[in-house]
Amino acid sequence: MKVKQFINGFSMAARALILCLAALWVPVTAVYAQTAAPRSYYVRANGDDNNNGRSEDAPFKTLDKAVEAAKAGVIKRITVLGKIESESTLVIRDTGDDEILITGKPDAASWEKAEIEYYGYQNLLRITNAKIRFTAISLSGNWMIENKAKVTLGAGTIVPGDIRIQANAELTMTDDATVRNTINASDSSITMTGNARITGGGGIRGGGNLTLTMSDNAQISGNTTGSAGGGIYVSTLTLTMTGNARISNNTASMQGGGIQADTLTLTMSDNAQISGNTTRSVNGGGVDAGTLTLTMTGNARISNNTEAGTSEYDGRGGGGIYASSGKIAISGDAQISGNTAAEYGGGIFFGSSGEITIADNARISGNTAGKDGGGIYSAGTLTINGGEISRNTAKNGGGVFVVRSATMTGGTITGNKAEYGAGVFAEKGRSWTDQGSTVHVEPGAAFTLNGGTITGNAAEFVGGGVYAQSGSTYTAGGGTVTDNTAGDGGANVFRQQ
């Protein structure tokens, strides 16, 4: 009666509104109750797998139990409280389309920070055909990602242990995620973004094919190996670097201080850098590849890498880049600078099947070689359509050492130094006898100047601008060779008789 009298005290419109709200009250309450349902399963070392796991006061004891519950139900979040250890292998398999999040508490006290450790020779965390994201957690021990699994290492994730990724699996690292050991990768893909880092271990290593994408300040840095490929060592690698991504300060005892691959397709743009890497022995302070396809644009840099050449192996070349075959295209404002090779190709060493093109405002500058080709040692085909080759140093060919053919249609070669051929050195022909006693003869180099400028280079002895060794060919169809210097004559062009 009182409710009826209360309602009758309002206007007809107000009474209608009150009745509508009353009718909606039960469904709204039901929706609220559903929204407030537990959003996470919890795991703690002193928990109990007989608990329901839905609160910090009733956590599961094992990650195995939490994963089983997440796979079967609607809750796809698992919160780890403190350190979880296991002496047995956990397999996370076939989770379906929904991603399961395994996380720590972002605001956890030191004693409650999440850590998962799998230890023992054969024990590991194995993720197969599953979709898993980790955040705010440390993952120790060995673990494997395989069989089309998709794993994301997100904010606050640290991995001190080894990771093996294979069989078309995908690993994504983002938001400062850090791997502090080695990733063994084969026939898989890795994406690094948002300051993600692989550092202080063996970098990325493996056979087969790897697709690696690095952007937004991602880093592979400070890794060391006793063999090849200080930062990356993979058979076939497709690598895209953009957004200030860096491969830096890695060290290899053999070839490829930064990267070593049999076949490498490398695309660099937007301030991407391969810098400060070192090989202690032979070939490729920054990059070493059998077959290399390199595209550099924007402000990309390959800089300050060192090929120390301290072993007795043949080669000893390519402070920045060493490759036997393929194509290099450098354009925009890209640079190869400040690299050092013990003998050949301070900036670039490219073999007889290689093609190099330089255009726009690209620069090859400040590189050093102990013998031939301070800036570029080209045994294949070199085309200079623009850009600048400057301030490089070598015994022969401070700027460019040509073995086969080079054509210059634009750009500038300036400020380089050498004993002979400070700007360009065109080599004589070669002959050698193979193991079957067959004699092979190669013709001398052919350098054609159709445009551009060779100026301000300084030779200690002869050939300040161009040195054409006996048996080589120098053809001037355009361009300018001027204001070069040489201690013994032939300041601009010297043709050896």
Cα end-to-end separation? 123 Å
Radius of gyration: 31 Å
What percentage of residues falls in helices of 4 or more residues? under 10%
Main sheet characteristics: 29 strands, parallel
Mean pLDDT: 90
Give the count of helical stretches.
Answer: 3
Classify the beta-strand content into a percent band.
over 45%
Q: Please provide the count of β strands.
A: 53
**Low confidence ranges:** 1-7, 16-38
Given the helix and strand composition, which structural class is it? Answer: mainly beta
Name of the top-level CATH class of one domain? Mainly Beta
| CATH architectural type of one domain | 3 Solenoid
Q: What's the multimeric state? A: single chain
- Under CATH, the topology of one domain can be stated as Pectate Lyase C-like
Outline, from the CA principal axes?
elongated
Task: Describe the overall structure.
It is a single chain. By secondary structure, this protein is mostly beta strands. Among the domains are: 2-35, no CATH class; 39-210, Pectate Lyase C-like. Helix content is 8%, strand content 45%. The protein has 3 helices and 53 strands. The protein has a 29-stranded parallel beta sheet that branches. Strands 11-14-17-19-22-25-28-31-34-38-41-47-51 form a 13-stranded parallel beta sheet, with no helix packed on it. A 6-stranded parallel beta sheet has the order 20-23-26-29-32-35, with no helix packed on it. It is elongated and about 90 Å long.
